[in-house]
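pasting for ref
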Amino acid sequence: MYDLCIKKGTIVNADRKVKANVYIKNGRIDAITAEEDIPAARVINAEGRLVLPGFVDPHTHLNDPPGGDVSETFLTGTRSAAAGGVTTCIEMPLTTPVVSTAKAFIDKRAICGPKAVVDFAMFGACVPGNQDEIQKMLAHGAVAFKAFTPFSIEIPRLDDASMLKAMESLGREQVTLSIHCENADMITSLTEELQAQGRVKPGDYQDAHPLISELEAVQRVALMAYKTGARVHVVHCSCPEAVDVVSYYR
């Protein structure tokens, strides 16, 4: 007997829609079939409804344990995910302490794991000088790593030399490095100029982060990824030219 049957729904796959029944055993889909008389302990009538695979959110900031950027907890965040059909969250390492060591990784998982109501995985932070810790975090289940080319209040930025070494190392492991790409020198200089002019309102922020800053950093990171064979994910793209650069180097 199956544990659960989701009956008469319209199943949506990558390439088609089909009316069928989904049979689940021990928490896993065991059969998708038009047969309706297979016994199951529980039956959900999904007639007239769409039955979709669970979504994966690959970039969440639940910020638990909380630090300077408090948004929600793993309990509230994963409850919201489940309500929206997201069954896996992949959490960023920008928490307190920053997840740049194996101890911080293990401690965060121990705190957040019991709260999660959906599946989750965790990033580690890639910062200057933590190469040994990166290997340890990989051994404890880190699925990817996050780095910054500009200043970040949470994660120390990587200079170009450190970035290249990180890509060479993670490239050998075929582990993804997600990178926030902006030119640190441009942003620092423009920020100082705006502050000197008293321009410190939210609307002034964009003038310290011009598109050329992003485009130059994406170009630099993409070239390093191309030359090292690293798996790089450029996050927070905000201009089409940056997407064109990524596409070209891919």
